[in-house]
Design brief:
Number of helices: 16
Radius of gyration: 25 Å
Helix content: 25-40%
Number of strands: 17
Largest sheet: 11 strands, mixed
């Protein structure tokens, strides 16, 4: 079953959560609840929830009339790298906004089966659900888009040579238009064809910020925007971090892979609707994930130090498998099936992405604990996204962790034992997969076969692996099952990138 392997706890009592939530969270951290996966789920007993079947209509009215401030269309398009999609989020208004609001008001839509919820109920597995989702909600770029950047470069060089010798014909006024008539960047949202097969079926999602005098409540004593934590002591206020955002999803809505701003704790509670599927990358695999994303993503994303803060990339399960994106001994990625009453708690620095199987309403906020301060100090900063948030944690470090201040001033970075462990794992991963670091022959696993492969002959370890599999299938087909050759071939390569080649 999807999502069965993560830690879950039940909350049966309504506490004075304004002041007791952070101590409760710190207790779970000390107990190691979800620490390996980077996530756990707290399910609130239905008897203490404020949103029940009798109050759902009132709750919908609150969300749609008071909180729905924006609706966006999600365009996920795969360009150069198979299985990695670039996500464009475009605000919509007018009839599209009104239609979204009208559909979101239909209470029955939050319980009626959808195409995704039917697949989830069948229990056929995560791959089937995501295969359906990709075919319905995502799209591969038209062939010409993949070569558009090269064509643009040739055009620029041609124009340079032309006007360099005679600039009298250069159209200065045309070039002063803002924006240009046609953007040469192949990943520009302006370039996406509006008459493609999904132009009217791209999924939508809505969101809104909290009104100061109307905080939503999970229980009579718990509001995500009224959890006292050290973020409230900062001199600046950040909506969506200290205060919550409300998210309204429809079938096939999704969110791109990302970490929470400044590596904060993430809280996400579902009030109403169909399940949301989360894919979690354990925190100690985040650096390896970043390296793979930078390799396969557009240059505009890859050049940034904080690519996981962009929220513009959506990986397929096949892309994750192909790149072995996990350094842990887990045989699968942590998966969460979030249902009404579930509070998803994300540890600091945990990459995550996911999809909605139908209409639902969730609320999200960030909090901080004292153990988060070193992670906040070292959080990577993004300078290329105007909406990027980067907290100045030095004030909190001075107040609560003066032991870190000397290292911060002298070295500009704070290194903890957990960070050292992740650095060592990342070093092992790079050494295990780099054609420069390792150049050892890998022999065919078939008995008495003299063929061997060198890493230096292939641009990437996965290419050598595919070449070896092709050799085994074509030259040793009769032995595939009797000698278990495919399994033995896989054992020659690290299932998790923290392992090295077998000798």
């Amino acid at each position: 079953m999807i999502g069965d392997q993560i830690d879950r706890i039940t909350v049966d009592n309504d506490e004075v959560w304004q002041t007791s939530f952070i101590p409760w969270l710190e207790d779970k951290e000390r107990a190691g609840i979800g620490s390996q996966d980077g996530v756990f789920v707290a399910t609130f007993n239905s008897c203490i929830r404020t949103v029940r079947p009798t109050s759902e209509e009132w709750f919908l009215d609150l969300c749609l009339q008071r909180r729905l401030s924006s609706v966006s269309k999600l365009k996920g398009i795969s360009h150069a790298s198979p299985g990695l999609y670039t996500v464009f989020s475009t605000s919509v208004g007018g009839k599209v906004f009104d239609s979204f609001r009208k559909k979101a008001r239909e209470l029955q839509s939050y319980t009626d089966d959808t195409c995704c919820s039917k697949i989830l109920k069948q229990g056929t597995g995560l791959e089937d659900l995501f295969h359906h989702f990709e075919s319905e909600a995502l799209q591969h770029a038209p062939p010409q888009a993949k070569t558009r950047g090269l064509e643009s470069a040739r055009t620029i060089r041609h124009l340079h040579d032309k006007f360099k010798s005679d600039v009298s014909t250069f159209d200065w006024e045309k070039r002063m238009k803002t924006p240009p008539d046609e953007c040469p960047e192949p990943l520009c949202a302006r370039y996406m064809p509006e008459d493609d097969r999904k132009s009217d079926t791209w999924p939508l999602y809505g969101f809104g910020t909290e009104l100061p005098h109307e905080a939503m409540r999970i229980t009579p004593n718990l509001s995500l925007s009224r959890i006292f934590n050290i973020l409230w002591l900062l001199p600046h206020f950040y909506p969506g971090i200290q205060s919550s955002y409300t998210y309204l999803a429809e079938t096939h809505s999704y969110f791109a892979i990302h970490c929470e701003d400044s590596n904060l704790w993430g809280l996400n509670y579902m009030y109403l609707g169909h399940p949301k599927i989360w894919i979690i990358i354990p925190p100690d695999s985040a650096s390896w994930l970043e390296l793979n994303l930078k390799r396969d993503s557009p240059i505009s994303d890859a050049k940034c130090l904080n690519i996981l803060g962009h929220k513009t990339l959506f990986p397929s399960l096949s892309w994750l498998k192909w790149n072995d994106v996990t350094l842990t001994e887990l045989s699968h990625w942590p998966q969460v099936v979030q249902r009404p009453g579930d509070l998803v708690v994300l540890y600091p620095g945990t990459p995550h992405f996911g999809i909605s199987t139908g209409p639902n309403i969730c609320e999200a906020v960030n909090v901080a604990t004292l153990t988060w301060i070193p992670l906040g100090l070292n959080a990577k900063k993004c300078d290329c996204m105007p909406s990027s948030v980067h907290l100045d944690v030095s004030l909190l470090a001075t107040a609560f962790r003066p032991d870190l201040w000397t290292s911060l001033v002298n070295q500009k970075i704070v290194v903890t034992q957990e960070m050292l462990q992740e650095m060592n794992q990342l070093n092992d991963a790079v050494c295990a997969t780099s054609p420069i670091v390792r150049n050892e022959p890998v022999s065919c696993p078939a008995p008495q076969c003299p063929i061997s492969f060198l890493v230096s002959d292939y641009p990437h370890m996965r290419d050598m692996k595919m070449a070896l599999i092709k050799h085994v299938k074509s030259c040793h087909a009769p032995l595939l099952h009797s000698e278990n050759l495919l399994a033995r071939t896989s054992e020659l390569f690290p299932l998790q990138m923290g392992k090295s080649f077998s000798k």
